[in-house]
Amino acid sequence: MTVRIPVSAEVLRWAVDRAGWSEDALRGRFPRFEGWLVADPAPTLKQLQAFAHAVHVPFGYLMLPAPPQEPLPIPDFRTRSNERREELSPDLRDTIYACQRRQAWYRDFALSHGLGEVALVGSASIGDPVEPVAERIRETIGFGMERRSAFKSWEAAFRQLIDLIEDAGVLVSVNGIVGANTHRVLDPDEFGGFALVDQYAPLIFVNAADTKAAQIFTIVHELAHIAAGESALSDAGVDRSDHDEHELWCNRVAAEILVPRATLPAAFRGVTDTAELQRLAALYRVSTLVVLSRLHDIQLIGWDEYRARYRDELSRVREFARKAKEGNSGGDFYKTQPLRLGRRFARAVVADTRGGGTTYGEAYRLLGTAKPETFGRLTVELGVA
User: What's the CA gap between 311 and 87, in Å, rounded?
Assistant: First the structure.
């Protein structure tokens, strides 16, 4: 006899809305859903398990009489049209939870190995003068103009910037999917990144589904949140129209770190054509969009010129990113996974496992693998002896 499980219609609808599914997508995957709403017939256990898996909802939630309250895991500073967004997609929520688990593990690792507190955490406060804070952060991570000149491009500078931030004690994860699941792509329109503050294990997550141009600004923006000693979920990109004092301050600090106010007027040749933007981008090792935004910040160009040029440049950058993505096969897992996890974190897991502090089963879970062979190859890629 088939056992069927009646489920609250309100909970079922909540699960679909939470997953962001359209009616067409719902009918395509679960054609009997309308019948479930009125228990005609109710879903079977197997059907309900499949539904929970598809919408990324814990199975137990479906047994509740009403939708559960899901508190925000970290402060949400994202805004759209002056309205704060309250709901998180399952992909974003699961990404935050995964990073919190990694952070908790690393904090224990740091304490057990006698690692000190990270000096950058809480070294500033929201509202502090921007230029001294930016200079202090630049010096702490070693991202001055002299250091940048050694990089061939701003993309290369971004890769090095990740290493510099991790060398300063901050964990950095850059990923465009949930874990290693290529079927769960993160939405760059939903968020650009987030910061998880901790004295021993501060963590920055950057949404790699966003353009490279946006990512370099996002990572420094989240670093400003770490310096302010606060966790935060942020919007994407340099062109944020934020109204929250925390986000405005972090935007200004990030812009000053990347393109110092004191140097730009003398460097700018007075025109904003593509050649000049690319020249300045090469000089500061940032994206052309960051250059444009900074030119407007410092009032070297007006609002109308900024908006017109920004639209054109954004279209050019997105088209370039689209073509690059079309030619990208997804990359080598053994090279991308350490970046997704964060090299500092992944190296610590491998070293602690080899030293007997972490079980291999726990290490596999933390590193997103299930095979000894994969663990071994990741160890080689990470350069852990």
Answer: 29
